[in-house]
Amino acid sequence: MPKGVTRRRPRTRAALLKAALETFAEHGFHATTIEQICERAGYTRGAYYSNFASKEELFLALFDEHSDRTVRRLAESIDALTAEEYTLTRLAELAARVEPDERDWYLVTTEFTLHAIRDPQAAWVLARHDARLRTEIARGLTLVLRRAGRELTVDADRFARLLIALREGGLAQSYVEPAELPPGSLERQFLAPLLEASTREIPGAGAEGEGQSKRSGSDAVI
Prior knowledge:
Elements: H1 3-27, H2 34-41, H3 45-49, H4 55-79, H5 88-95, H6 102-118, H7 120-147, E1 150-152, H8 156-176, H9 185-198, E2 199-201, H10 206-216
Antiparallel strand pairs: 1-2
Helix pairs in contact: 1-2, 1-6, 4-7, 5-9, 6-7, 7-8, 7-10, 8-9
């Protein structure tokens, strides 16, 4: 493959992903055609099929991109905390943040989830990507709690499922009644008590926990 094509490929892929998210949010996953995505991105069907085999594959690429971006943003916010700020309340506040562009993603992922519920094959594939995200959440949560001198008393993967359910269920209500329940409200109110009830202090954490904080770096996410 010519070097110019190789250099252009990431840019082409990024443009198609951006156009797909916007078009899916505007028209719906099923109603959107590949032609609409290509037209919005400014590329041909050939460029599309050199990057994605189907709309399902395109959605899953969006899913992974969104997951990675969300994890990265949260990790950066947590890494900026001082040792004194490592409290369950402060961690809950950071986890409760909802970016302005989250609504478009919520519309797209909700529709695909409904599709997956009806289609066993789509459900199997989506579950694999969900599991990857949960692994990152569970791993990061364990590290962050250790920095705060605490540890989970429940299974980390199960707790990650609960965090996702709280997030997605809260957003569903917030986008229907934004004035009554602004996005992130439920996490801000209930996540800290939930963490308190599902964790315990690590005996003798003290200085060791502080040292762990300095070593962990950007691995942390909640």
